[in-house]
Design a protein that fits this description.
heterodimer; A: six-stranded mixed beta sheet; two-stranded antiparallel sheet; B: mainly alpha
Chain lengths: 160, 130
């Protein structure tokens, strides 16, 4: 899968860089697909989520209390936003360090029974790719810029 | 899909812009209030090194309920805030007051004008350290 990590300007701020994923030959990010799919049925919740992400980026940073971390395979780093009994949607995210958040897709809760939901699986794969590039130094954290730096374009043939 | 390999391409989404533009002042205030209240409660717990589990035990709740409150998504009722205030032993009004900046150490500096010898600059810590 070829894709690119892009910075969401509307959410990123001095407290955290907020990113999403754009698959090659697509013109929307995974987060935009999530919004488009659910904005009609869950408009209020989608509006809250956008405000929530903006607060994380600009005011509050990535405090542990905002995330449900017991998702995905152990140590794949995938966590969930907005996954509470009184909410209808869950949004999958991957935290890179303490100040970079990659927002993937989401789905109505509870997730599909009998296996991981597709957005979760996709983000778990992406988190693996990112970890690999961090290990090789192709992606790194710039404290000065407070943003992810390096090569954030991923191509299937790059995998070793 | 090319970028200059120096970081992520910056992207501004029309879809997100439309959603954000549709947030009413009331919705905005409601979400902000939830965040602020959750932050104040979390701040008091942090200052007392109190875990979710401990607060849950004090209130006879499940720790997952405390996690939900602290996530910033919960619509608190006055009754719930009153229960939390009793468990944290603070007035309910504490949740609505800006947090006081934490004083790490008070020092008293004395600066005098005139011919100051190079070795005369000093400071003396006050005795009551908060």
């Amino acid at each position: 899968m070829n894709y690119e990590i892009i910075e969401m300007q509307q959410f990123s701020g001095k407290r955290a860089g907020i990113y999403s994923v754009m698959i090659a030959d697509d013109n929307l990010t995974l987060f935009e697909h999530f919004v488009k799919a659910h904005v009609r049925d869950h408009a209020m919740e989608i509006r809250s989520i956008t405000q929530y992400l903006s607060y994380i980026g600009n005011r509050y940073g990535m405090q542990n209390r905002f995330f449900k971390v017991d998702r995905g395979m152990p140590r794949d780093g995938v966590c969930v936003l907005f996954d509470h009994p009184e909410k209808k949607l869950r949004l999958y995210c991957y935290r890179v360090g303490t100040a970079a958040l990659i927002v993937g897709g989401g789905m109505p809760r509870p997730g599909r029974r009998g296996g991981e939901g597709v957005p979760e699986k996709m983000l778990a794969r992406i988190s693996q790719d990112i970890r690999r590039k961090i290990r090789t130094g192709d992606i790194y954290w710039s404290a000065q810029e407070a943003r992810l730096q390096g090569n954030l374009v991923f191509r299937a043939e790059e995998k070793g | 899909m090319e970028n200059n390999h120096q970081g992520a391409r910056k992207y501004s989404s029309k879809i997100i812009a439309d959603v954000m533009a549709s947030i009413t002042p009331l919705e905005s205030l409601q979400v902000e209030t939830r965040f602020v209240l959750a932050g104040r409660i979390a701040g008091i717990m942090d200052s007392r090194h109190m875990s979710n589990k401990e607060l849950a035990a004090r209130m006879g709740k499940n720790p997952s309920e405390i996690s939900r409150w602290l996530s910033g998504t919960h619509n608190f009722t006055i009754d719930t805030l009153s229960e939390i205030a009793i468990a944290l032993e603070v007035p309910v009004a504490t949740f609505f007051s800006p947090a006081q900046p934490r004083v790490v150490r008070d020092v008293r500096l004395t600066v005098r004008s005139g011919n100051i010898p190079a070795d005369s600059i000093s400071f003396s810590p006050v005795t009551n350290i908060r």
